[in-house]
Amino acid sequence: MARARRAKSGVVARPKLHYLVLVFNIFVILALVTSALGLFWVSGRLNERLVVTLDKPAKPNASDGGAPLGTDWDLNTENLDAENFLLTGSDNGACTSPDSATSGGIGDRTSFGERSDTIMIIRIDPSSKQAAILSFPRDLWVNIADTTRQNRINSAFQSTDPNRLVATIKENFDIPVDHYVNINFCA
């Protein structure tokens, strides 16, 4: 009876396949929008990282006649020289939310500044396929670079400018640093 009324009024009955295609298209659109929002969020998080430059001359690249390497992220696979990475872990809790479940363990850190609890040199030697880690105690008493004073090694730390800590390690232990990574409570 309903078909007869639709036929008389000129309304064409739509097959079930039409509705399935419509639901599928809506699902695809929602999936694309959700994926785009997720990629936008990840891109924003990646752009929050702080990139610092160490004060040192670039190493010459033998493949291009000795010109210095750039600061891009492409790794030179022709150069198998060992490199040292300075890894620091700081106790800066500025990014933790007071509503976070872990904020009570950190306490109010606003008056403490930022200190390095972990200072390590990781040496990676691609030619021998070996790595070694040297850890410095944070209270190790050393000559602080570019000053006339002695203090704990972690007093040379500043997360946004690692050059004083790099110079302190070089002057006291004769270990050059090629790369720097700082990890804090924000990761």
What does this protein look like?
The protein is an alpha+beta fold and 187 residues long. It folds into two domains: 2-47; 60-183, LCP protein (Aminopeptidase), CATH 3.40.630. Helix content is 29%, strand content 21%. The protein contains four helices and eight strands. The protein has helices at residues 2-9, 16-47, 103-106, 163-173; strands at residues 60-61, 67-68, 83-90, 116-125, 130-136, 141-143, 150-152, 179-183. The strands form three sheets. It has a four-stranded mixed beta sheet, with no helix packed on it. A two-stranded antiparallel ribbon has the order 1-2. It has a two-stranded antiparallel sheet with strand order 6-7. Strand 6 (141-143) and strand 7 (150-152) form a beta hairpin. The longest helix has 32 residues, at 16-47.
